[in-house]
Amino acid sequence: MATWKIEGCTVADAAALSRNNMSAFWDDPTWILLWPKDITREFLIEQVAKRYPRMLTNDREEKRHQKAVDPNTGALVGYARWILPPSHFNAKDGGPEWPEAQTPEVTDEEKRQFEELAKSAWWGGRRDMSGIDDKNDVVMDRILAERPYIKLDYLAVHPENKGKGIATALVESGIRHAEKIGVPIFVMSYKAGRGVYERLGFKEVDRVIQDDSQYGGKGEYGAYFMIYEVPKVA
Q: Could you tell me the residue range of the domain that residue 49 belongs to?
């Protein structure tokens, strides 16, 4: 099995990230319901690529972005987005925490250009599904309010690369940093990703199962709330 390189992301990764991430969720039976039936994957990839430079450079203080790279081809094969708790935006030396996973700073002019590019993108999901995650948000907010966590906010591997240990490599990278600074990890997982987290030592602390058939789904939309506890320092 390949040893995947885990690196920080830059705005130059926008197109590759969009292709990886939109493809990763395209076959998810509930996620695909968010979009009008006439929307194609290629169209969505093109639109999201316009939004990603802004996404990568906004909220730099709290967000960290990582990509998995094939060491032989240099291709981007996976992505993870992490959110640090306010108590750990900065390291003990005063600099940013986890700087290798922080998107490089850009100029104000570049930020303006990224904002305009993002505004030019189509972004029109189904309005009748806008509240499908309300119950999930209530549970997530409750757990995150209990104590500081590093939140694994997004994990995506292109379908062509699944089963190759890419998701594991990305999550393990976050675990190493969580253990380094002594902060547990929280993630809201969908059914397809639970196995990865369980194998790496995450424990389920709550779940919300909803019926998505009213939106045209297959009947079950499950969200599983999981925590990785870092070992206590003796």
A: 5-228
Domain assignment present for residue 234? The answer is no
- Round the CA-based radius of gyration of the chain to a whole number and report it: 18
Number of domains present in the structure of the chain: 1
Using the 8-state DSSP alphabet, how is residue 72 labeled? T
Terminal C-alpha separation, the chain: 35
Give a yes or no: residue 221 inside a domain: yes
Chain centroid, CA 70 distance in Å: 19
Neighbour tally for 92: CB within 10 Å: 7
Nearest to 69 by CA among 120, 5, 22: 5
Nearest to 186 by CA among 213, 219, 156, 224: 224
How confident is the model over 107-118, as pLDDT tens digits? 999 999 999 999
pLDDT of residue 31: 92
The proportion of the chain whose per-residue pLDDT surpasses 90, expressed as a percent, equals 88
H or E segment at 18?
helix 14-26
- Closest among 195, 221, 218, 191 to 208, alpha carbons compared: 221
178: nearest Cα among 83, 94, 102, 96: 83
How would you class 124 by CB atoms within 10 Å of its CB: exposed for 0-12, middle for 13-18, buried for 19 or more?
A: exposed
pLDDT at 136: 97
pLDDT at 48: 98
Buried-exposed string 167-190: b where 16+ CB fall within 10 A, e elsewhere: bbbbbebbbebbeebebbbbbbbb
E runs forming strands in the chain: 5-8, 63-69, 76-83, 150-157, 185-189, 203-210, 221-228
